[in-house]
Amino acid sequence: MDKITTCLWFDSQAEEAAKFYTLVFKDSRITNTSYYGEAGYEIHGREAGSVMTVDFELNGNSFQALNGGPHFKFNEALSLVINCEDQKEIDYYWEKLSADPKAEQCGWLKDKYGVSWQVVPQGIGEMMDGVATENTERMMEALLKMKKLNIDELRKAYKGKS
After folding, report:
1. Cα dist. 122→74, 93, 158 in Å?
2. Distance (Å, rounded) from C-alpha 104 to C-alpha 98?
3. 66-78, pLDDT tens digit by residue?
4. What are the distances in angstroms from CA 2 to CA 32, 62, 82, 127?
């Protein structure tokens, strides 16, 4: 069991979202589903037998989806980062997850549930690491103009090639 598990609060789409995410991410699975009982109805207002939580794994990372009601909404203050091996993988996740073109910027997107994701190339941290250099500044200028990140364009900018 992981020491830390990310819990995602949904109104009533926990099971639907968990199924969707486990289809998008390879090597993923639903591990448990729990249901509301009679106890606590006056607090949670959920019908007995309806889905309360769905535990699932995405590429070995543990998550829990909770049907907690409409009280809270997702926002960009929390995002999930997908470190992609190549442009093909960036394109794949972008196509599968992006549901709000207005929310796309600098490798960030929002899915159909409102969850924010960063779809980034592995190694981008090395191009941004440490003190800002001329290379880093060029790469950041290129990145800030992008919605979906383009690895080749970022590398070219970093190396100073047009």
Report:
1. 26, 14, 15
2. 8
3. 999 999 999 999 9
4. 15, 7, 19, 31
Residue labelled with tokens 């009982």: 37
HSE value, Cβ hemisphere, 13 Å, CA-based, for 102 = 2
For 12, 15, 85, the CA distances from 38, given in Å and listed in that order, are: 18, 20, 47
Query: What's the farthest any 2 CA atoms get from each other in the chain?
Result: 65
Angle of helix 87-97 relative to helix 151-159, nearest 10 degrees?
Answer: 130
For tokens 């995405």, what's the residue?
Answer: 58
Three-class SS state of 86: coil
Q: pTM score, two decimals?
A: 0.91
Give the pairing of strands 116-121 and 79-84.
Answer: parallel
Neighbouring C-beta atoms of residue 136, cutoff 10 Å: 16
pLDDT tens string 20-35? 999 999 999 999 999 9
Structure tokens at 8: 């995602």
